Amino acid sequence: MNPLRNPVTWFEIYVNDLPRAKAFYEAVLGIELTPEASPGDFEAYRFPGGMPGFGAMGALMKHPKRLPSVQGTLVYFHVDDCAVVLERARVLGAPIHRDKWSIGADGFIAIIGDLEGNAIGLHSFG
């Protein structure tokens, strides 16, 4: 395996209200989510990208056996500036768990909540 290749290939962020979650993530991150074909008992919207690719692929997932939680795994999204994205989230009524702060040479991070009850991380170099 290439030591520079990201080993994470997929993540799921669990939600209760899929249309609300889709609108939130699209507005906060400035992206477009696409419907994910679901052969089972779940509904999903996929984040942009393809597999395999740079970074990790993932989706918002409404699943009868999974619930949103602020205590679960924390996924960090790379953005141009954490402060700008924090303000977008604040305007949408999302909780701010930790404002932008420096992590030294690796840039800045922040932690916000989505409108489903999950905590998500933000990362930027500026």
Describe this structure in a few short sentences:
With 126 residues, the chain is an alpha/beta fold. It is 17% helix and 32% strand. Strand 2 and strand 3 (43-46) form a beta hairpin.
Tell me roughly what share of residues is in helical segments: 10-25%
- H/E element order: EHEEEEHEEE
Tell me the total number of β-strands. Answer: 8
Q: How would you sum up the major sheet?
A: 4 strands, mixed
CATH homologous superfamily heading: 2,3-Dihydroxybiphenyl 1,2-Dioxygenase, domain 1
Please count the helical segments. Answer: 2
Overall tally of structural domains: 1
**Overall radius of gyration:** 15 Å
β-sheet strand percentage: 25-35%
Low-confidence stretches: none
How many angstroms does the end-to-end distance come to? 31 Å
CATH topology: 2,3-Dihydroxybiphenyl 1,2-Dioxygenase, domain 1
Mean pLDDT: 91
Strand ordering within the main sheet: 1-4-3-2
CATH hierarchy, class: Alpha Beta
Identify the CATH architecture.
Roll
Structural class, by secondary structure, is alpha/beta
| Envelope shape | globular
Structure, described:
With 126 residues, the chain is an alpha/beta fold. It has a single domain (10-124), classed as Roll (2,3-Dihydroxybiphenyl 1,2-Dioxygenase, domain 1). It is 17% helix and 32% strand. It has two helices and eight strands, in the order βαββββαβββ. The strands form two sheets. It has a four-stranded mixed β-sheet. A four-stranded mixed β-sheet has the order 5-8-7-6, covered by helices on one side. Strand 6 (96-102) and strand 7 form a beta hairpin. Helix 1 runs antiparallel to helix 2. The termini are far apart. The model has no long low-confidence stretch (mean pLDDT 91).
